Amino acid sequence: MSLRSVVAISIGGVLVGCATTSTVPSSVPNPLPTVTPVVTLTPTPQPSPIPSATGRVEPTPAPTPVTTATPKPALSINEARVLLNQLLPPNMPDRAGWNADILDAFTALKLPYTAEYFCAAAATIEQESSWQGDPTVPGLPKIVWNAIGERAEKYHIPLIAVQTALLKTSPTGRSYKERIDTLRTEREMNDLFEDLADEAEKLKLPLNMKNPIRTGGPMQVSVEFAQGHVKAWPYPYPMKGSVRNEVFTRRGGTYFGVAILLQYPAPYTDMVYRFADFNAGRYASRNVAFQQVVAKLTGQALVLDGDLLRYSGGVPTGVSGTQAAVYGLASKLAMSQDAILRDLKQEKLAAFAQTELYKKTFALYEKNGQTHPRAAMPQIDLKSPKITRKLTTEWFANRVKGRYDTCMARR
User: Fold this and answer.
1) For residue 141, what are the CA distances in angstroms to 80, 153, 306, 318?
2) 63 within 8 A of 43, measured Cβ to Cβ
3) Among 278, 384, 307, 392, which residue's Cα sits nearest to residue 20?
4) Between 161 and 88, whose confidence is greater?
5) Is the Cβ–Cβ distance between 141 and 181 less than 8 Å?
6) Among residues 216, 232, 254, which one ends one of the domains?
7) Is the pLDDT of residue 56 over 70?
8) Residue 131 lies in a domain
9) Among 118, 192, 277, 387, which one is least packed by beta carbons within 10 Å?
């Protein structure tokens, strides 16, 4: 995923899902999830130690005694199943199956069984796929043929030659052309491109047939995120084939979607910012608030996308607008450019909020009694062949938040 990622599903950009990172700002993949319980909006057990950016594990502070209220005991798995069933929409397909998949994901990821978290997952699934385990995409054959035509033109190959090659029988027994003409779902498209990639030489197509599909499943999860996640956290199900294939199953897509949405310590008091992060990348909402403060301190107009650095191949490159603006504050912050860059490199981690740069920047802005929120909405336009009107990360987050509020009202 993040590991974000709205991510293109295309031959060079066929289809974009409304989750996980934007194509507008350049960003690194979302960091792998920490192996600790996440911060929630309701009381949870004391978290385990969290590794710092250097890999050193900091000791967990002793919990402060609470005398004013008794924390609610954690729900049993049977109680959680009942609660989740109460929260799911009244009219939905295979309620028992979805209940099991969501609950299994929470259990495997060691997430707390709370109404807030159940509703966050349910609202995101509903927004991304309308409770379809293998989401259908209107006009998918046209999207794929257009992309193939663009790639053929790039390689100066007549489209008719490509279409003729695709008349050959594929591993399913049907021709590639027939499979493209009858495409309905993302999983079918992924399987098609997997076969095309395996048989590109046999088809004698001098095109780059590497599988370009980067998101999928009922929560539109980044394949890259899933591939990274299984290296940091054990996948709980028997794997049939590759991690990529698991993303396109209902069970696997739900598991990885819940992980990228909830399995990280977010510093928010409003769930809408988790939904924004789901779309724009982890900690994007926190980082946008930082960008707003920098813009006010410097008078510079910045792109409020949550990306503090510019990346190429996952490595910081060049100088981003935010980076240049912060460099202009170096003397006021009493920090060198090397120290500023050191802290900016933690922008995709929870630890960024504890850096010298983050604390000094907010302190500089607030020294005269002004205050500024620690989260703000990323301003990112969503672009995709299947999007026919202006949509933004803010639109996505608010749509999911509306579904979340409806879910919470069912308690």
Assistant:
1) 41, 18, 34, 39
2) no
3) 278
4) 88
5) yes
6) 216
7) no
8) no
9) 387
Residue predicted with more confidence, 233 or 69: 233
Q: Please report whether residue 299 resides in a domain.
A: yes
Per-residue pLDDT reduced to its tens digit, 33-45: 433 333 334 333 3
Query: Smallest Cα–Cα separation from 322: which of 342, 337, 307, 333?
Result: 307
Distant-in-sequence contacts of 81-89, Cβ < 8 A, 24+ apart: 83/113, 83/115, 83/118, 84/113, 84/118, 86/410, 86/411, 87/115, 87/118, 87/119, 87/122, 87/407, 87/408, 87/410, 87/411, 88/122, 88/407, 89/122, 89/126, 89/131, 89/407
Of residues 355 and 2, the one with the higher pLDDT is: 355
Alpha-helical runs (H) found in 88-130: 95-109, 115-129
Per the structure, the complete domain to which residue 350 belongs is given by: 283-366
User: Does a structural domain hold residue 92?
Assistant: no
- Element of type H or E holding 275: helix 272-280
* Domain stop point among 178, 200, 216: 216
Please check whether residue 409 lies inside any domain of the structure.
Answer: no
Q: Tell me what the mean pLDDT of segment 342-370 comes to.
A: 96
The pLDDT of residue 315 is 82
Stretch 215-224: mean pLDDT: 92
pLDDT at 200 exceeding the cut of 60: yes
Whole-number pLDDT of residue 387: 54
User: What does the buried/exposed string (b/e) look like for 209-220 if buried means 16 or more CB atoms within 10 Å of the residue's CB?
Assistant: bebbbbbbbbbb
User: Angle, to 10 degrees, between the axis of helix 337-344 and the axis of helix 356-366?
Assistant: 110
Closest CA to 113 of 57, 170, 44: 44
Q: How confident is the model at residue 14 (pLDDT cuts 50, 70, 90)?
A: very low
pLDDT tier for residue 239 given thresholds of 50, 70 and 90: very high
What's the domain count of the chain? 2
